[in-house]
UniProtKB/TrEMBL annotation:
VOC domain residues: 8-128
Bias type Basic and acidic residues, positions: 136-146
Coiled coil, from the record: none
Domain of life: Bacteria
Protein's UniProt name: VOC domain-containing protein
Native species: Rhodopila globiformis (Rhodopseudomonas globiformis)
Region annotation Disordered: where it falls in the sequence: 132-156
Length: 175
């Protein structure tokens, strides 16, 4: 039997109504680090990390962009695996019954090739990881995705409103 291409769970994406409020909650309550903000064609949001795994906190811009969950869905949207070989990993997944959704499955440097598993759960495979993630922490062959630490000025007010809300919650609890 041929060796299987291994994936490393390094990305979790949440779909929420207010990514800045949710990000501030995780930064304040669990100490996650903000690595970047996104305003892309499909979603806007904030990316956090614990130093190994990337947590994407997203609000999808339309039902189509949400890849089947709906723009107003709140919850776990998808997970992502950093793989050695996007083409081989994608073929393995599809042979096992996965359904391709988007991304170029034939690009060896492919980024976020999306599929659904047998239960309809969306998952990504990627050749280069996600902001703030590490492929093999503690190993000599570890790869780290760069941390761009980018904030978008257009989200300044939303970021500040989220900070104030979490601070108000803290004060109400006597913290």
């Amino acid at each position: 039997m041929a060796a299987k291409s291994k994936g490393y769970l390094r990305h979790v994406a949440l779909s929420v109504a207010d990514p800045w409020e949710t990000a501030e909650f995780y930064k304040q309550s669990l100490g996650l680090e903000e690595v970047t903000e996104l305003d892309g064609p499909l979603a806007e949001g904030v990316f956090l990390t614990d130093g190994v795994v990337n947590l994407a906190i997203l609000h999808f811009k339309s039902d189509e962009a949400s890849q089947g969950t709906g723009a107003d869905f709140v919850g776990l949207h998808h997970i992502g695996f950093w793989v050695d070989d996007v083409i081989a990993s994608g073929k393995q997944a599809r042979t096992a019954g996965a359904t391709w959704i988007m991304g170029d499955p034939n690009n060896p440097d492919g980024y976020e090739v999306k599929h659904t598993d047998l239960s309809g759960i969306v998952f990504d495979i990627a050749a280069h990881g996600w902001a703030g993630s590490q492929k093999r922490p503690g190993e000599a062959e570890n790869e780290m995705h760069p941390n761009p630490h980018r904030r978008l000025a257009k989200f300044d007010e939303r970021r500040e409103a989220a900070r104030q809300k979490i601070e108000a919650n803290r004060m109400a609890e006597g913290g």
